[in-house]
Amino acid sequence: MMGIGALTKLLTQMAEPPVALQRDSCLNQRHKQTDCHLCVVLCSKEAIALGESVVVNAERCVACGLCWRGCPTEALTLRSMDHRKLLSQAYALIETDTRIEFACPRRGEGGPSAGCQAVLEMTCLAQVSVPLIVGSIEKGAKEVWLNDSRCGECELRATQRQIGETALAARQILEAFGRAGTVHLYSEDGALLEGQGRTARRLRAEDSVRSRRELLSIFSSRLLTEVKGSITEPIANVLDTLAPPPSTRRVLPQKVPSERLLLLGILRGMGAPALDSYPLTGWRLARAGIDDRCSGCELCSMFCPTGAIVRTERAGELSIEFHAAYCVDCKICEAVCPSSSLRLQADVTLADLLQENGNVLVKGPIVTCSECGGSCLGRGSRPLCFICAKKGEFDRQGEEFKDSPAEE
Prior knowledge:
The protein is α/β, with parallel strands linked by helices and 408 residues long. The protein is 33% helix and 17% strand. The strands form six sheets. A five-stranded parallel beta sheet has the order 8-7-5-6-9. A four-stranded antiparallel beta sheet has the order 12-13-16-17. A two-stranded antiparallel ribbon has the order 1-4. A hairpin with a 2-residue loop joins strand 12 (309-314) and strand 13 (317-322).
């Protein structure tokens, strides 16, 4: 018989959308000037809306994963799947010299799959990540094939572009490690598989996860026979316990996206690359630079969602470090910098990604602001904190406006 705990869990799964929001990671929640709307743009099902927060329509969402993969901070995640789970399922299929295919259920039977010894099916190929591809090759796969043969006709319009970008990023890394030619798209190289044999092993990534429709069916069929007599409190009280209590703390937590952490773990286990200066283009990667207008305020490090920017004070000295390995190029640091002294640059190499220690962007003594007496970075003969520096800029603009000739 279904107990109240099992019923509560079932009701929760039915009511929740397939995508979960991590509010603290959402760029718009951290700073309004960010104006990020990538999730809305990527969702062709119009299941996502932006207001005071991100709202996901459970009826429209198909759990494709485009928003999950597209969000730079992983503020949106799939409840039924994550990067580690996908990689572990790929590992279960891989044997030495295995040619593995990643596909969606729409690819059909006996089609382009011929030639791959293993197939991992997932709801949508948008869920394929760089660590999934690179990790599969490192595990022993001979080649990774992305079956995009039906993506051109799919209503999820952003999928094929997402697949192409992911494949390009994985190819860059693998080429730098001397493993070029191991990542293929069916739309580009499908002819190479002709006459190569047929699929031997197949696994669905969602085999262990019940869909929302399946849960509704289970609930309908068992409601009268199993639930009757098991509810010891009003159903309204059960539903009230499903919502988490609202947070009353004003904090800015930092979290490195799981995809990036998984990739870094794989890369650091692969040894030294053949070409560590290999340029990585088309990624959410960046290097930071700060000019001499920086006053040493903590806004960039405070708002950074991943902890890529670290500000420290030690023994009367202030320093700001930047860790390219954790940067997702969200540009929130540029938006909040009061002096516009911080800029992100796209010329990132594999060496930047593999560097374990951060680069020191600013370092100097902590001194007293010449105007307000607060603390700031000691620069120039008259150091100013960012508030006084900004006030001085406004005052100068006001004087220039007063001195400008009036228009007749």
